[in-house]
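pinning this so it doesn't scroll away 📌
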Amino acid sequence: MRQVPQAPGSRPESGQRFVLAARTWTFVCFVLLYALPGLIGHEPWKQDETYIAEIVRSMSATGDLVVPTMAGETFMEKPPLYYWAAAAIAKCLAPILPLADGARLASGLFVLLACAAVARCGRRWRGPEFGRTAVFVLLACLGLEAYAHLMLTDLALLAGVAIGLAGLPRWQQRPVASGCEIGTGVGIGFLAKGLLAPGIFALTALLLPLVFSRWRRQAYLRTVLAALAAALPWLLIWPAVLYVRSPALFADWFWLNNIGRFVGFSVPELGAPHDDGFWLRNLWWITLPAVPLALLSLWRERQALRTKELLQACVLMSIVVLVVLVFSASARGGYALPLLIPLSLLGAASAVSLGPRAERVWRWSGQLVFGSIAALVWLAWGYIMFSNNPLHLDAVYAQLAPSPDRRLHAAALAGCAVATVAALALMFWRKPRQAALQTWAVGLALCWLLLAGLFVPWGDQVKSYRQVFASMRPALPSSAGCIASEGLQESERAMLRYYEGVTTQRLELLPRADCRLLLVEDARGQTPHRVDSRTWVVIWEGARPADDQERFRLYRRRP
C-alpha cells in the first residue's frame, strides 16, 4: 500500500526542534558537570580561599557589606561583589553545607554566568552553533579549568567581561539595550576586581572608532553613552559609601590596591610582583587552545578584518588586556582570565571549520593526553588506596598526607566510574561535528572530575589548616588573655580566626603588645632568632602534614 506523503515541513520541523532541544540540554548538562564538581567537599585552601572564607564569615556575622574584614583587620584589596554573592549563597545553604562549601558555589555561579554570556554573544553574532562552540573553546582552556573551582574574585571579573562583551553585537540595531548590557558587565567587573574592567572596556571603546571606520556612527555613540549611564550606579554607589564611612579606607582601596598595584609602588608591601618572564612561562598554558584557534581564525579571515565586527572587537580587546597584563607591576595567573573571553570568540570561528587533517590530529592528541592522564589518575588512586608501600614520588607526596585516609566513598567512586565511561565514549567512539574540540573539553573535564572525586579528600588533609589549629587548642590556657603573633601570614591569620575564633595582636603592627602567649610562623621550620629563649618557652608546635614550608610554634612568657 502506498504511503500518503506528509505535509511538507511538518515532520522535519518537529524532529529538528527535538534534535535542537536535545543538543541544547546535552550542552547545558556538560557545562554543569564542568563547573560544579570540586566546589564542595573540602576546606578553604591557600592562597585566595583562606582569606575569602574568613571575609565571608565576618560579613555574615557582622552584616557589614561595605568594608570587608579579615581576622579583625580591614581588607581593601578588592570590592565586595564576590563576597556578597558568596555570603548570600552560604547563608541560604547553611543548614545543608558548611560555610566554605556554600561560599565556593559562588565561583560556579560566576562561571555559569560567563558561559551563558559567551553563548549569547556568539549566537547574536553568528548563530546558536557558533555560541555553543565559543563556550566549548572557553571550557577547553587549561587556565579556566585551573581556577574555575576555587574561591576567586577573578571569576566574577570573568563573568562581568563576558556579559559586557555579549551586549556589543546589537549596537547598531538596539544601541540603548546594547549599552545597558555593556554597562552592567562593566559594573560587575568593577565590583569584582576594581578598575581593571572599566579600563579594558574604556580603552576598547576608544580604539574601535579610531582603528575601524564602521564604528564611527551615531548608533555607536549612543551605545557608549548608554553603557556609561548603566555603569555609573555600579561605579559610584559602593565607593561613595566607602568614602563617607572612611576616606582612609577609600584611599587604601583606590590608591594602593588599584593604582599602586598597576604602577608598582605598593607591590613590595602588598605582594604578587611581576617578575621577568612570568607571562612567557604561564600565558601559553592558561590560554591553550584558544590562542592557536584565534590565530588560525585571524589568518583565515585576515581580509575580512576591515568589515567583520566580531574580529575587530575581539582583536582589540585581546590586545588591550594583554598590554595591561604585560605592563602591570603585579602579576598572577588568575589575572589573565578576562583574556579568555575574546580569545574564545575568536577561536570559535576556526573551530567550527577545521580541516579534516587538523581535526584528526587534534582529536588524536586530546585522546592521547587526557586518556593517559585519566588512566594515571585511576592507577595512582588504586595504588595509594590498596598498597601499603609508600609512593616514592616527591611531586605526589607533597600533595598527600603521610597516612592518607583509605576509606572508600562509594558515591564518589561510582560517580567517577560512570563519568569515565561516558567521557571515553564521547572521546573515542562517538564522532560528532567538532569532534576534536569536544574531545579536548570532555577529556579536560574528566581529568578534573577524577581528581576532585578521588584525590581532593586526600589533598584536603594537607591543604587544610583545620587540623593543625585544632591541635593547638589544648595548649591554650583557659585564661590566656591576648595572643601576640609574629610572622603569621595573611592566610594563616584568616584560618586561625575562621576555625578557632582567635585574633592575634601582630607585633609587626603593635610592637609593644604585652601578651603572655606568642604564636610564631617559621619559614622552613627554622626557629626565629628574634624569640629569646630566656623570655619565652615553647608549649606547642605543629604543621600541616607533609608541609616543610610552614611550622607554627606557640610560646608562653616565662614567669
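📌 and the second one:
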Amino acid sequence: MKISFLLHNAYTIGGTVRATTNLAAALAARHEVEIVSYYRTADRMSLAVADGVTTRTLVDLRPTSRRTAVEAADLRSPGIVCPHDAIHAGWTPPSRLGETRLAAYLRSTDADVVIATRPYLVCFLAERGRTDYLRLGQEYAGRAAHGTALLSDLDAAVSRLDAYVTLSQADERAHRAAHSGVRTRVTRIPVCCPVPDTEPSTGESRIVLAAGRLTPTKRYDRLVDAFAKVAAVHPDWSLRIYGRGRERLRLRRRIEERGLYNNVLLMGARTPMDPEWAKGALAVVSSSSEPSGTSVVEAMSCGLPVVSTDCDHAPREIITHGEDGLLVADHGPVEDALADALCRLIENEAERRRMAAAARRNSEQFRPEYIAAQYEALFAALRPEPVRRSSRAAARPLRRTRLPGLGVARIGRPVTVSCQVMPGGSLAFEASADQLAPGAWKLVLHPRNKSSADAPQLPLEQADTAGDGRARAVLDKRHWELAEGDWDVFLQRASGSRRRPLRAGLVETARLLDPAALGSADAGGRTWIPYPTEEGGLAVRTWLRPAHAEVSAVQVDDEAIRLTGSLHGKTARAHHYRFVARLQANGGHLIDASCHVDRYGRFRIALPVDVVAELHPGEEALWDLRLSAYGGPEIRLAMVTGDLVDRPDVSVFPAIRCAGPGGVLSLRPQLTREHDLVLKTADAVLDRPW
C-alpha cells in the first residue's frame, strides 16, 4: 500500500521529524512511502530519508523560491484551521496558500493511508481528508501538553479519524477516556529507533548527555542545578546539553551564576545524534513531561544508562529502574535526587557498565521492523482489504530498505563518504562502492584558503576479504602532517584532475576524547577533527603547534581571571615562562604576570582585573594571551584538543564588570575561530551578550 506522512516542516531538526523519518524508512521495506512537508525552509533535509521514501513540498519558503503575486498574498494571509495550535504563533505559521495546497493534496492523493503528525495537521486531515483512505493522527506532545481550547479542536478532529496513535500507554489511557463512545481507534505504538550505525559508547568518558529542545518542559534549569552538586564532588565530569530553543539564554545565565561554564556546555543541535551519544558515559532526562521518549531510546541504543525523572509518560515505560537506568521522583527535591542518582553511577563503574549492557539489549524492542509491524497490524485491523489506488504500491516487491545513512547515490547526487576517528587520531574514510562509477578513485584533501603541494591523496580501496561492498581510505596521522586550517575532502578519479564534491555521511569523533588521540606530549598540539560543513560536504579542521599551551579551565571572579592548563611539545617544556597579554590593535600595551609551571608542564595563571582595567584603551579591544620565555618561543593560549570543532560557540565564559579610567567596563575571555583564547575589554555600553 501507499502511506503518506504529513509534516509541518520536514527541513527542521526535532523529535517528530526524526521519528517520522525512522518510521517511514521501516515501512518502505514493504510499502510505497511519501513524506509531505507543508513548508520547506532549507535546500536539504537535516535528516536523510531512506531509499524508497519520496518527499514532496507544498510551499517552498526558501528565498530563491518564486511565486505569483496571488500566491505571495495568500502566503501572507494566515491559515484558519485549528487556530489554537501553537504553530500559528511560530516562525512559519500556517497560511492560506499552504491550506489551499494541502487541501488539494488530500483531494487528489492516491495514498491508502495518510498520517498527520501534529494537532494542526490532524484537524486539517479530519476536516478535508477523504474517507476512502485511512486517516490517522499521531500524538507527539502528550495530551496534558495541550491547552483547553486546543484539546476541544483536537478531540473533535480525532472523533472523525480512523485511528489516533499515542506513544505511551499513559497517554493512550488519557485519550481513550476522552474519546469513549466514538468509533476512532485509540492505540499506543512507541517510537522506533534504528540500530545505530555508530560504534556504541565505551563508557570510558566522563561526560553526561542530555538532548531535546530547550523549552520549559525539559526542565534543564533543574538539571543545571543538579549538576552543580555533581561537579562539586566530581569536578572532572561534564554535562553536555544538545538542542535549540528559547530557553538558551536563560540557561546560559544560570550556568554562569552557578560557576559551571567549564562543566556544563550548551552544544546546540546535532544531526544525527548517535555519534554524540557514543561520547557519553551516562544520559539524563530532567523533564516534567516526556511523551515520546525518543532521546531515551536513542541513548540506550548507544549503550548509555539513563537517569530520568519519573515523569509522564515515556521514561517509566521504557526504563527499568535498577536494570538499565534509574528513575527519580518528579516531585520534591528533584535536583538532589538527580544529583544523587548521577553520583551513584559515576562512583560505581561496575553498576554503570552492567546497566549500559542492559540498555542496549532492552532497546531492541524499539527497532523499526517491530514498530512497522505494529502499524501494519493496525492498518489491517482498520481495513482488512484496502483499495490500492497506487499501482506502484501494489506491484512493490518485498525488499530490505536502506536506512538513512550511506545509501546508494542516485544519479546526479554526490557520493556519500563517512569518516571515523581511529585510535591514535588517524582518520578512516568509507563509502559504498556501488556509488562509484567503474575505475579507480581517490579522496583528495585540499586546504580551503591556500594551495598546498602536500595535499593528501588517498586511494579508495575495496578489500576483497571484507565482502561488504565498502571502499575505504585511511589518513594515517603517523605519516601525514597537515598544516593548520580547514581541509575540504573531495572525490577524484585516480587518473584525473577534476575534484568532485561529496556529501558527508556519518562522522564519528568519539575517540578524540581518548587521551591516546593526543599522541605524545612531546608532539605539541596536533589535532584533526573531521566535520560536516554547512553545505553538507566533509572537511577536516587541523591544528599544528609544535609548542602548545592547552587551557583546560577558565575561572572568572571579581579579582582575577584564572587560567589552568598544560604545556605540550618538547620545545614548550624546556623554558621558564611569564604570562603576557598584548593589545591586538597595535601591540603596544602589555600586561605581564607570573606563570607557575610544575615539572609535569601544568600551568596556573592569575590575571588581575584591576591591572587590565587600568590599561583598557577605550571602546572595544582584544588582547592576545600568551606564554613568553626569555630566549624561547612565545606560545598562544588555546583550546584545540578534544572533539569540538565549534568550541568558540560552545565554551562561552562570563563577563565581569569593573571600574576603569573612563568609567565602567566589561572583561570577557573568549575563543577565536582558531580556538585561541583572547581577552575582550569593552566600555560597558558597548559590550554585547553571547
